[in-house]
């Protein structure tokens, strides 16, 4: 990550960060692992109810 910009708001410094190209791959890997975990732990009955309600 790197500092993207800074600005003063109500007499306080606000610092905004941006994700660098070097940080994008590790972040994507972590996000994919979290998604796999969430999907693996999801209750199949909840999925069936959700599908039935959206039809």
Q: How would you describe this protein?
A:
With 55 residues, this protein is of the alpha+beta class. 58% of the residues lie in helices and 27% in strands. It has 2 helices and 2 strands. A two-stranded antiparallel sheet has the order 1-2. The chain is elongated. The protein starts with a strand and ends with a helix. The mean pLDDT is 86.
Q: Helices and strands in order, then pairings?
A:
Elements: E1 2-9, E2 12-18, H1 21-41, H2 44-54
- Outline: elongated
Major β-sheet profile: 2 strands, antiparallel
Give the helix level as a range of percent.
55-70%
> How many runs of DSSP E, i.e. beta strands?
2
What value does the average pLDDT take? 86
> Which series of helices and strands comes N to C?
EEHH
End-to-end Cα distance, whole Å, is 43 Å
Structural class computed from helices and strand pairing: alpha+beta
How many domains make up the coordinates? 1
What Rg do the Cα atoms give?
20 Å
Strand content: 25-35%
Number of helices, where a helix is a run of at least 4 consecutive DSSP H or I residues: 2
Strand order of the largest sheet: 1-2
The parts where pLDDT drops under 50 for at least 5 residues are none
């Amino acid at each position: 990550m790197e500092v993207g910009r800074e600005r003063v708001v109500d007499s306080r410094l606000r610092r905004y960060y941006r994700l660098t190209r070097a940080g994008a791959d590790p972040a994507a890997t972590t996000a994919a692992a979290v998604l796999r975990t969430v999907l693996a732990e999801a209750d199949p009955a909840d999925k069936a109810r959700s599908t039935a309600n959206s039809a």
